[in-house]
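Hi all, posting the design record for the shared folder.

TITLE: backbone redesign
STEP: 1 of 1
STRUCTURE INPUT:
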């Protein structure tokens, strides 16, 4: 792999200092030279409403342009009520329209979920994967990433624990390979 692939990172939590945001930042810092990760903000996207497609909000246009320009997408999300946060679902909807012009189509993807609890956002991870199947996002199946007990992923000084660092680095290495084997030619 000699080419650098751009990866749009969508963070499901909008909260400042969220675990999802911190995991996304850690991924960006640990990315191999073959990947360039950049977070794409979803918090300012107006709710999807097909009536607005005749004159789409500029936030939709900017989001679609940014997503269309990346080679792959990494979803980093918490679990809200056994599903994904509303902002993330809205981003999926905005990017999938207008019909026939989805920014998601054939874009390699991966899902990372986390939770302070032991299940690591399992419900959100799998619920998101259901939508990605329909959106034709070839989603990496292994290694899976359900980061349980995420509050303990950083030491008192704010550095990733060696165990978490290893998990994230292995995931990124696998994702880089996944992008190369599944990206549209």
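Okay, here is what came back for every position:
SEQUENCE:
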């Amino acid at each position: 792999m000699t080419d650098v692939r751009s990866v749009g990172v969508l963070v499901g939590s909008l909260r400042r200092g969220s675990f999802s945001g911190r995991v996304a930042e850690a991924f960006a810092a640990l990315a191999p030279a073959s990947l360039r990760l950049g977070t794409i903000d979803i918090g300012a996207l107006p709710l999807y409403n097909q009536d607005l497609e005749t004159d789409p909000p500029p936030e939709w246009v900017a989001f679609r342009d940014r997503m269309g320009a990346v080679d792959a997408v990494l979803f980093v999300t918490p679990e809200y009520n056994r599903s994904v946060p509303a902002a993330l679902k809205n981003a999926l909807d905005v990017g999938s329209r207008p019909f026939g012009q989805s920014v998601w189509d054939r874009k390699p993807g991966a899902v990372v979920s986390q939770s302070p609890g032991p299940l690591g956002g399992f419900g959100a991870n799998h619920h998101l994967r259901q939508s990605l199947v329909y959106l034709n996002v070839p989603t990496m199946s292994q290694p899976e990433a359900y980061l349980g007990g995420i509050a303990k992923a950083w030491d008192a000084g704010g550095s990733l624990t060696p165990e978490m660092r290893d998990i994230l680095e292995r995931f990124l290495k696998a994702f880089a390979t996944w992008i190369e084997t599944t990206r549209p030619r």
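COMMENT: The chain is about 35% helix and 15% strand.
Let me know if anyone wants the other runs.
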